[in-house]
Structures are given as structure tokens and as C-alpha cells.
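Q: Got a minute? One more chain.
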Amino acid sequence: MRRFELFLAALCGACWIVILLDALRVVYLENHLPLGLYPLYAIAGLAGSFAGHAFMSRSRGLPLAERRRLLLVYVGGLPVIPILVRLMAPTVDQEAAPLVPLWCVFVFAVFTIVPLSLRRPVEPGRGPGPSTGPRSDDRR
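A: Always. Here it is, folded:
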């Protein structure tokens, strides 16, 4: 893994540890960040888009095992950021909408899957250039 991915994995690991400490009531996260749902979903979408595009650009030309480790960091680690932000919301907001962290993960997943699904391998003989369009003999 590269330095940036190691930093990202450490950041996500620290966020998961803070969430675990909150669950054990060692630290208290609620009532620290009054954030509405739309900005929260925007954070989830931004994190998902970053994860998808960063994985696509940083994994080019890497062996399969290295690509899987990067996918674990980007897709497995980054959803923790909107979840952590949601846990910092006021308690009343958290009790009014308890499924919001799950929806944030779904928003993250959608924005991550889009760049991953748009990647297609180039077929032999179908590279960029004038020969990529339909040929005149293919039309009926």
C-alpha cells in the first residue's frame, strides 16, 4: 500500500475506535455537531464519490492482491466518516430518525459503485480513435 492509503486506513481505524468507545460509553459523541440530514447525505455522497474515483485512479496497473487491499481501505473504511458525523448529532435527532446511518451507507455505496461500474476493459482493436464508431457496413 502507498503512504496515502496507510494514512487513510489509520484515519478510518481511529474513527472506528472512537465509535466503539462511544458504544462502550467511554466517550460521548452526541450533541457535539448539530448537522441536518441533507448535509449529512452530502458528506456521504462526497465520501463515496471520492472512494470510487480514488480507487479507480490509484489501482491502475496494480496486481489483483494489491487492488483488493486498496478496495478494502476505500470501500470498507470510508463509510465510517458519515456514521461518525451522525453519531455527533443531537440525541433528539438521532432518536427521531434511527436508520439514518444505514441510509448514509447506502448513499455512500451508490456514489462508490458508479465509478466502479463505469470501468470497462478495452477490447482488442477497439481502442480510442476513429475506428471506435459504427462502421458503414454495420448499418442496415
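A: The chain has one domain: 3-117.
Q: Perfect, thanks.
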